[in-house]
Amino acid sequence: QVQLVESGGGLVQPGGSLRLSCVASGFTFSNYGMTWARQAPGKGPEWVCSVASSGELTRCADPVKGRFTISRDNAKNLLYLQMSSLNPEDTARYYCAQGGSSTWKSGNRGQGTQVTVSS
Q1: N or C: which end of the chain has fewer CB within 10 A?
Q2: Considering only CA atoms, which of 84, 27, 30 is closest in space to residue 56?
């Protein structure tokens, strides 16, 4: 049974930073590309960043490029999202999802962790 559990969200001031984590179980983590996505109230899911199974290739959406970094630790089945220069438009529930940028929508995902950027 695939399980993805996110943590690390919270309330942060504009310009601040957060690091999200996602622990994976129930599948061979190192065989899968992984994705962070987010969903703001009243909006659909939005792709944020993806990382290849090996961790060597990463991609991020234009709104977060240069501010967010995705990484993974295959030895520990962990996925990370380092977020900096946060702004109120980044407020959303952040999910980790099994799959890369073209497949995550149809894959498993966690319950998410809330990130709120506000002064």
Answers
A1: N
A2: 30
Chain center to CA of 35 = 6
Summarised one tens digit per residue, pLDDT across range 73-109 is 999 999 999 999 999 999 999 999 999 999 999 889 9
CB-neighbour burial class of residue 20 (10 A; exposed 0-12, middle 13-18, buried 19+):
buried
Neighbours of 10 (CB within 10 A): 12
Q: How far apart are CA 108 and CA 99, in angstroms?
A: 8
Return d(Cα 94, Cα 103) in angstroms, integer.
Answer: 17
